[in-house]
Amino acid sequence: MQTVTVKGMDEVLKKLNKLAQWSEKDAANLRAIDKRVGEVYNVSLRANIKDSPVDIKVYRGGEKRQTIKRGTLRRSIKTFVKRGRTFAGPKSTKSRTKTNRQNGWFANIVEQGQGFGPSRSRGIFERSQKATQQRMVQLQTRLLRKEYERYMK
Asked: Is the dihedral of CA 133, 90, 39, 101 positive or negative?
């Protein structure tokens, strides 16, 4: 029976083990990269959303439920982590207040062009996504390569 000895195999295995733990040990830096990439989309959205000229009053069952201040949709656009995944766009939250200045729960209504008067921002989320997707992929690739080289030293 013959045995084969490979020189440097220990070093290769050590590098592979380090690479396998990259997402766990360098999670904060990887999350920061995701947030930076998501901000490309957010900047495009904020620049293109047109605010309502007046505050919007939401009624349900004949009674006033909430007042949406002008600029709320633009202010609700954030990059956030939910269940370990990074998201970019309007963030909606459960609100107990009658006036909420950063809640994007009505973003889908605006995207479809339904309600709230003339649809000045109809389709803005989809158009912004198409316009920024290539830039986001390139930025993410460049930043991950840089982080990989730093981590694997």
From this structure: positive
